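Issue 218. Parser rejects a valid record. Input:
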Amino acid sequence: MLYQAFDLQKSWLAGASALATAGAQAIQHPANPLGYFGGSPMFASALEVFAHAAAPRGKPAFDLYETVVDGEAVRVSEAIEARKPFGQLKHFKHKGAKGAPKLLIVAPMSGHYATLLRGTVERMLPDHDVWITDWRDARNVPLTAGRFDLDDYVDYLIDWLGHIGPGAHMLAVCQPSVPCLAAAAVMAADGHKCRPKTLTMMGGPIDTRKAPTAVNQHATTRPHAWFQENVIATVPAYYPGAGRRVYPGFLQLAGFMSMNLGNHMMSHWEMFKHLVDGDGESADKTKEFYDEYRSVCDMTAEFYLQTVDAVFQRHLLPKGEMEHRGRKVDLTAIEDIAMLAIEGERDDISGIGQTRAALTLAKSLPAERKKYLMAKGVGHYGIFNGRKWREEIAPVVEQWIRANGG
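Output the parser choked on:
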């Protein structure tokens, strides 16, 4: 009944949010004389913060309509070029993309939508032909579509790289670093003509034995059965995926929020102060972040449990024991896929050394085709979004792509 209880609470909060919004608007209305006296502005600001926190959220849009190429503003359009039951391949088209390096950005399947990487896509658009994996909310996938696990994830990546064609580059943000590295190894071993020219991994859990974080410790201090019994739920009958076993997005969000609860409380306190001071622009920036951060989706139980087991508990990939469809994933098969590993100095999700481990594991890859970047003063989210991503990290990624066939 966990899912049903959450949905009931969400419905209650949606009503409370609507009432709070109406109350704030009534107090702030220019024709209301009471809004100018006493604690009315403060009360209206408090209602607005609550209304925003309690509001229901769906899948956000990318809303990327234009970019600037060689000083000229050009229109950007989205096209879905390949569909599968659990995801689709989205292509951002614009006039300046012709002849530009093809870049597949692999979004994490970790409770958030691909739009969490809006800033990543936006920064890479001017000089690249950008594609992104747009994963589907598992609660909306009918049982008739079958399963989705780590093997399927790797298959999706191989198929989509094949769709994009030879010469593409791949950028993995956080969780997909493992399946992206596995897909690269499988394609390299097969001599696949569409294997990526470069693989950039950002804050990925390649070897979680190195500098374990709270996320790693959570996964290793509990037996596998605990996750099966405590975090897996059944999709209720009123969703298209009724009966599917999933790891609900709202549980993952609760876990991430609790890891940095003090920071999230301070962010909302700052939002409240900005509203009281009439600084709507600063308050809107916080709202925009949480609109995205709180938009969550479910992942299949089999994918989540397999990831916990293979990546965080048994460390199969760095130990050379990971298999794909019964065949061992051989990282030494990677001989010509240039690899860039990026880590954030303050990353509290993937510890220092976890992503860099990929460079050591690819033993057949020449040293000149390996590169490591430590992003100073950057946390997990800042690796792929924000000012330091735009000004310090993205230029390194762009240079690496150009230097290796871009």
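Fixed in the parser; the record now loads. The longest helix spans residues 2-28.
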